[in-house]
Amino acid sequence: MTLATLDLAAEVKAILSDLGVKAESYTGGTLAVRSPITGLEIGKLREETAAGAAKAIDAAHAAFLEWRLVPAPKRGELIRLLGEELRAAKTALGRLVSIEVGKVTSEGLGEVQEMIDICDFAVGLSRQLYGLTIATERSEHRMMETWHPLGAIGIISAFNFPVAVWSWNAALAIVCGNSTVWKPSEKTPLTALATQAIFEKALARFVADGGKAPKNLSTVLIGGRDIGEVLVDHDKIPLVSATGSTAMGRAVGPRLASRFARSLLELGGNNAAIVAPTADLDLTLRGVAFSAMGTAGQRCTSLRRLFVHDSVYETLVPRLAKAYQSVTIGSPLENGNLVGPLIDKAAYDKMQKALEAARAEGGKVTGGERVHQDEAADAYYVRPAIVEMPAQSGPVKDETFAPILYVMKYSSFDEALALHNDVPQGLSSSIFTNDMREAETFVSARGSDCGIANVNIGPSGAEIGGAFGGEKETGGGRESGSDAWRVYMRRATNTLNYGRTLPLAQGVKFDI
Ligand code: UN1
Fold first, then answer.
1. Measured in Å, how far apart are the chain's first and last C-alpha atoms?
2. Which of 154, 381, 457, 504 is in Cβ range 3.0-4.6 Å of 372 for a Cys bridge?
3. Is 24 a catalytic residue?
4. Which residue in 107, 114, 266, 438 is the catalytic one?
């Protein structure tokens, strides 16, 4: 089937109606959504007004006041049901992700699997929201810490993982006793409506089974930047978890800080890999190809910089260039294609601008050209680009959300490590080596300065069990696994006196 004959609007309508989304929520509105696969419109959504958003946040706060009283393991039961509903909807929602974002089929399904995985994690967590008991210096006293629900949690998500990012935040936030208010990317609101409908199904089952849940536990606000601003400025939102560009983080972070609200920022990455002399080059080739070309370079964990030791440069780089030349680019819905389209024309323009700037710095560009424009004039498919750079300069230090891999030569490990860390961003990183000293050094205190540092796998494709996030301009937030749940709760330190005297700490005397 050619791109020109695909009727995605009809398919989207069928999927949404199957999932229980009412047609009036995505027809006749003002926000036009296009599938990057064809560049054609697939929905027109009604947008929330600023006043409507503020009212919805008040309602979410009211929901929080009730939900925080439900015991955590019971809250976990709701997320268990959400996991079940997501399993049932996996094919449909995965397909919708592919259509709305342009991800290849296995990645669309993988994104839903990530949602299911975090639900499983959160169910277990609902019985493990532990605090410490702490030794006290006073006799007949006990000191402990308790973790309490925080409030209505704001979630701002990006187009590239339109539903998984919501689930990392929402599954944890809800078992932690919070409500959630979600502003999805205006490029991908249909998957948000679908996810909300799936959540409502889980909620209906929870209530039918005798569970107590308030209305407005999960809210979706469709709209643009003004709606995001309402979320960021509203005093009933104690935490906003925001995923997007560093520019977005710079706008959001200080506004939250000015009212002492928390932020969990998941911003730009400029992820690198070092290929050492002892690297297994077959494995390296596969790892680099997936990380750099997968999702058309539109993951925040995508591989963007490659440092190759000069002893293996001439072996690896031509093989890599060949893989770039032969990779299958086209409709992500067709089996066999590995690279789908860029999200829109703006992304394409930014990619071309970066390639231009790289050339000006002496970079040798292979690939990067537009393909399939004859079949779909409004869709932006590109051949992934390899750029051999004489130095780490110009656009190499920026995050360009497109499949551009800058390749550079190095001769000493310390030099590679220094170059690796010499960018403003700090999300993900990796080294391909069989030298134990190099591997251990890379993950040590003097190694990679990123939130994620891998050995013999690429920087992208993290599992949900680990904390996900990065340092420097990446924003410092951690979401998903490990103890990321703590940011969605407030900690109280409690001292209880079960004696009949009142000893003061630090030996202070105050006898009246
Ligand atoms: C993102 O691109 O915003 O590690 C998240 C990965 C995925 C998540 C990416 N699990 O690549």
1. 89
2. 381
3. no
4. 266
